[in-house]
Each structure stands twice: as C-alpha cells, then as structure tokens.
Design a protein that fits this description.
- InterPro entries: MTPAP-like_central, NT_sf.
- It comes from Pelagomonas calceolata.
- This is Poly(A) RNA polymerase mitochondrial-like central palm domain-containing protein.
- The protein has 3 domains: about 180 residues, no CATH class; about 100 residues, Beta Polymerase, domain 2 (2-Layer Sandwich), CATH 3.30.460.10; about 170 residues, Poly(a)-polymerase, middle domain (Orthogonal Bundle).
- Helix content is about 50%, strand content about 5%.
- It is built from 24 helices and 7 strands.
- It has a 5-stranded mixed β-sheet with strand order 1-2-5-4-3, with helices on both faces.
- A hairpin with a 6-residue loop joins strand 3 and strand 4.
C-alpha cells in the first residue's frame, strides 16, 4: 500500500472537546403570529388622525384593551397645564360596564405628576356623584391622593346609611322621601346586580380590600364616629375592620421599646397607704356579732396583685353554712365600729348581692358574702401572676386603656376589670406563653359548700402544676402583647373567647344580631362576661380598640390626617383624658 498520498493530504482540524461551546438561546415567541396585513391594520388603528380631536381619539381608543397605550399617549401629548385629557382617559376606563381596577391603578400610577394632582381633585368627585364609589376610590388612590380616596369612602358610608334608611321606610310603609327636585331617593340609588341597598357597601368592601392605608384612614376618620347604633354604619365599620385584619395580619408596633416604656409609665401602680388586710380584720371583728366563726378575706385585683391600686377594696365574708343572710344587715354592720363608714348602701338586686361603703379615710369597700367562685378566681389569677410576671403589666395597661376611653365597668354596660384580666390571660395563650387552663380542682372547690382562702390557693397551685405552668421571666414585650389585646377585642366576632381550651358552651344570645364579644368565665363556664355589653357599648369598645390598633401599627406617613402612634392612647396627655 502506498502511504505517500496519505502523507500529502492536509491534516483535518479537530475541535477541542474540553472547550465549552456557546449555545444560541432561542427567542421565545409570545402571542399569536400576525400577518403583515394584520400588523399594518393594527398600526393604523392605533394611529390617530391629525384632524381627529384628542377627546374623540381617547374615547375611540379606550374601546379595546389593545389600544389603551395609544389612548394614554394621546392624553399625555394633548395635556398642557391642565389635566383634561388625563381625566377623560381614566374616566373612560372607570365608566366601562365592567371596569378593570388593576388597569386603572396601572395607568394612574404612570401618570403621577403635577397633572395627576389636578386630576385627583376632579375625577373622584365626579365618579362618586355618579355612584361609582369603588372606581372613585381606585382612581384617587392610584393618582396618589389618599385624601380624595378617604372622602370617597365617607360618601360610600353615607350612601350605605341612606340605603338602609330607605329600606327601613319601605318596611314600615312610610312614603319615600323626596329631594329638592321632587324626585324620590329610589331614583338616585346605585344598583349592583339589582340590589340597591347592598351596592354601596359592596363597593366599599371591595375598595378597602385592596388598600390597608385606606381602611385605616376610614377607621380613624370622622365618618364612622357618629351614630353607633346604626346597623349600616356598623356594617361599614365591619367591612373596614375585616379588610384591615386581612391586609395587616400579625402587624406589630413600629417602635416597640418606646411603646413599652410609655405603657409602663402610664400604667404604673398608684402609691397608696391603704392597708387592705387591716380593713379585712376590722370587718371580721364586726362580723363576729353575726356569727362567732365569721371570717373576712380580700379578693379581686387588690388581692391578685394585677391591679393598679386605684380600685375599691373587695372583701368577702365567709359565714358557715347553712347561713341565711341579709345584705342590708351587712350594710348596717359597716356603719358601726370599728369601721364607722360614712355611707353604706346595699344592692340586693345585683348578680352577687353586695354592700358598699365609704370609710372615714376615703377608701371605698365592696362586701359580699360566701362568694366562693370569686375567691377561686382570685386564687387562680394570683397564682398565674406569680408564675407569669408579664401578666400584671398587661392587665394594668388594659385597665389604663379602659379608664382613658371612659369605659366604666358593668354599671355603664361595659366590660368589668375582671373581664379585661381574663382577656389578658387569653392573649398570653394566643402568644404561646400559657397553655389551656381547664382548672378541675378549682371548679370542684367553687361548687362545694366548704371553702377558705387557703384551700383555694392550694387548688390553684394544683391546677397550674397539672397544666404545666412553671415560673418564667418577663421578656419585656409589653407592646406586642398590648397590640395583640387590641386585635383580639377589635376583631372578635361570633367566636366564644375561652381560656379552658375545650369547646366553649355559652347560653344562646337572645339578641342574635348584636354582634358583640362573648367571653367565658374561667370557672363558671355558663357565665358570659360579655353579656353586659349593649349594641352601643359594644360598638364603642370595638371602635376604640380598632382606632388605637390602627394608630400603633400605622407606617410612617407625612400626611397630616394619617394614622400615627403619637395619636394613640398611651401618648395622650393627662389634660386630654
């Protein structure tokens, strides 16, 4: 074989296998392929004639979503010092049969400039006057004017109230009211899906569900403060609260350390020279005239150590069973030595009959007889406070909050201080700092016929040991706990709040539509601590907690009427209380 030919052939160039080869990235085609004729037709449809007025061009281009960009371009080119064409462009988008609010928000944000502020002062008012409340809120928010959006929300609340009033007149058979033009209100009602009474509330709920700042502004604004008992305004407040709960779930205060310091200073215990044990001993001495075996022990917040020292002295007379007592005799007993009360009255119609008196030193005392459940509750809370030191500051902050808002307890149809304490215990449970507290030993002791303070203390220690509650140190997170307390009260609806962990069972509420807080007593499981609330006081309580919560978790905002922590409860001066 001749190898000469093989040697004369040029060597072939081999590619290096170790060198990486660049791969061409294939461009992904999006959308349908258009022919040249279709592309020319689309370009011609987007182009505007020099003879066509800009307003007519905007109206024509807003007919299809594909030409929205062209309409925006015409509006931006035609506008000079005013915002007439921007108002026309956004108005066409908002006045469609099925407006796309994301599209409105997109083009509104792109138009933010000097003319956007001018458009925000014109268009939302016009849309609100036409009954398009949701579109008015969306346009104002997208253009950066939260004031105009809040004004549209206020108009929505008024429309909700007006629709409710018209519906009430229809049910009562009264003739419809007429306006200045002689037309009935029904002719001006906004209809959505054929339901005029639900239209404003539905639009308001949808507008608030997209913007937490708008829901917060509505809560702290003046549009919901009046007419607590109006069902329509309560529904509007519920819509704002629901939106805020979803959009700001788990929100925390901005400066927790500063809020904690202010809460501790505001809810500090008052200094007092009152000796509760001495008063109890004097009452026990006086009660020997009723029975030689009579005893007297303190109970309530002063005995648990969870109070702030500003309450009354709660005393319980323990008389041996069987005992038939008259609370009027106890009141007469307080007037004699050694107490020598200036004024003593008996309230026999109370749930627990009580005798109230004022001592010469100015101390006020409440005396009950054989109140076993109250003594057991006191023993439970006292032991809890000893094992959880974070409970006492939270209870004092709750008491200071209720005092600042003038929630005066059961006699004013508000929650008692004991109910606030139970709510604080529930907050610790929700934060994972306390387990469920079924308390079998205390429950059995409260139902027995023989009991003293020592037995109650022993039963409380036994129940907490079985629940696994051990002593723990305070981590200083009072601000977070206080905000959680506000959230619990503000957003509580139909669920029963219980500290026992099991399914709560309370008597059926006779007023099903009251929408109030339902709170189970830790030991007397059939007792609802929230039953004292009326429709008005329930709305006041929920609104106060909502408003304070909004101020504490609000982000920084330079607008004057925006929510801010400085306007919340802990920062009020003493002159504003």
């Amino acid at each position: 074989m001749d190898n000469t030919a093989e040697e004369e052939q040029p060597p072939t160039k081999r590619a290096r296998t170790d060198a990486p080869q660049p791969q061409k990235k294939k461009k992904k085609r999006r959308g349908a392929r258009l022919s040249k004729a279709e592309r020319l037709a689309k370009r011609e449809a987007q182009a505007t004639s020099t003879d066509e007025p800009p307003l007519a061009a905007i109206s024509r281009l807003c007919a299809t979503p594909a030409t929205y960009d062209a309409a925006e371009r015409v509006a931006s080119q035609a506008d000079g010092d005013d915002a007439t064409h921007l108002v026309a462009f956004l108005g066409c988008l908002a006045r469609q049969a099925e407006p796309r609010f994301r599209t409105i928000a997109h083009y509104g944000r792109r138009a933010r400039s000097d003319r956007a502020a001018k458009a925000a002062a014109i268009l939302p008012k016009a849309l609100a006057a036409e009954g398009k409340l949701e579109a008015a809120c969306c346009v104002a928010t997208s253009l950066g004017s939260i004031q105009e959006a809040a004004a549209a929300c206020a108009l929505a609340v008024d429309a909700v109230a007006a629709a409710g009033a018209a519906r009430a007149r229809t049910k009562s058979g009264a003739p419809p009211a007429e306006d200045d033009d002689g037309d009935s209100e029904e002719e001006h009602e906004v209809t959505v899906d054929g339901a005029p009474e639900h239209a404003p509330l539905a639009q308001l709920s949808r507008a608030l569900s997209r913007d937490a700042a708008l829901a917060a502004r509505l809560i702290v604004g003046p549009c919901l403060r009046a007419n607590w008992s109006s069902p329509e305004r309560r529904r509007a407040l519920k819509a704002a609260a629901t939106s805020l709960k979803v959009l700001r779930a788990g929100a925390a205060p901005g400066d927790s350390a500063a809020l904690t310091a202010k809460l501790l200073a505001r809810a500090a215990p008052a200094s007092t020279t009152r000796d509760d044990a001495q008063i109890a001993a004097q009452l026990a001495t006086a009660a020997k005239t009723l029975d030689a075996r009579a005893q007297c022990v303190p109970f309530g917040s002063a005995a648990t150590g969870l109070g702030d020292g500003r309450g009354d002295v709660d005393l319980c007379l323990l008389l041996p069973e069987p005992c038939i007592f008259d609370v009027n005799k106890v009141a007469e007993l307080l007037k004699g030595p050694p107490l020598n009360a200036k004024k003593a009255t008996a309230i026999a119609t109370a749930r627990v009959p009580v005798a109230r008196a004022t001592l010469p030193g100015g101390s006020r005392i409440d005396v009950v007889v054989n109140a076993r459940r109250e003594l057991c509750n006191t023993a439970l809370l006292k032991e809890l406070g000893a094992r959880r030191p974070q409970l006492a500051p939270l209870c004092r902050a709750a008491r200071a909050f209720s005092r600042a808002k003038k929630f005066g307890g059961n006699h004013r149809r508000h929650l008692s201080h004991y109910a606030w304490t139970v709510l604080c215990v529930r907050v610790l449970q929700l934060r994972g700092e306390l387990p469920a507290l079924p308390c079998p030993a205390l429950t059995a002791l409260a139902a027995s016929s023989e009991m003293d303070a020592a037995a109650a203390a022993a039963a409380a220690a036994t129940d907490l040991d079985e629940a696994g509650v051990v002593a723990a140190a305070d981590d200083g997170a009072l601000a977070g706990r206080f905000v959680d307390l506000l959230r619990l009260v503000a957003f509580a609806r139909t669920d029963i709040i219980t500290t026992r962990g099991a399914a709560a069972a309370l008597p059926a509420d006779a007023k099903k539509h009251r929408d109030r807080l339902r709170l189970q007593d830790p030991l007397e499981v059939g007792r609802d601590l929230g039953a004292v609330l009326t429709r008005r006081t329930s709305a006041q309580l929920r609104y106060a907690c909502l408003e304070t919560y909004v101020h504490l978790v609000a982000p920084a905002d330079a607008v004057d009427d925006a929510p801010r922590p400085e306007r919340a409860f802990p920062f009020l001066s003493s002159a504003e209380e």
